[in-house]
Specification:
84 residues, mainly alpha, two-stranded antiparallel sheet, 3 helices, 2 strands, 43% helix
Length: 84
């Protein structure tokens, strides 16, 4: 897949400087990069991740810690049943 927004250019200073200068001075290259669809997502993953963590922690509040377990393992008192 080639989205046109990521290039593997290495760490050579002259190559990095040349690529940055190309994007800053070549309007067509900059526009193509700025308008490309990011293959890594839309930058909005944090909200669904936080919701999933809140849901998981809510389920874990139904668990209790076993005082006899030196590793402090969680012991489930009730497990959610999913129909999916």
């Amino acid at each position: 897949m080639d989205a046109g927004i990521v290039w593997l250019i290495g760490t050579a200073e002259d190559v990095v400087v040349a690529e940055v200068e190309r994007l800053l001075t070549n309007d067509a290259a900059h526009a193509a990069t700025a308008e490309a669809v990011n293959p890594y997502g839309d930058g909005r993953a944090a909200a669904p991740c936080a919701a999933a963590i809140r849901q998981l922690l809510g389920w874990m509040s139904g668990c209790r810690r076993s005082a006899r377990d030196s590793r402090r393992r969680l012991t489930a008192t009730s497990l959610p049943i999913s129909s999916a």
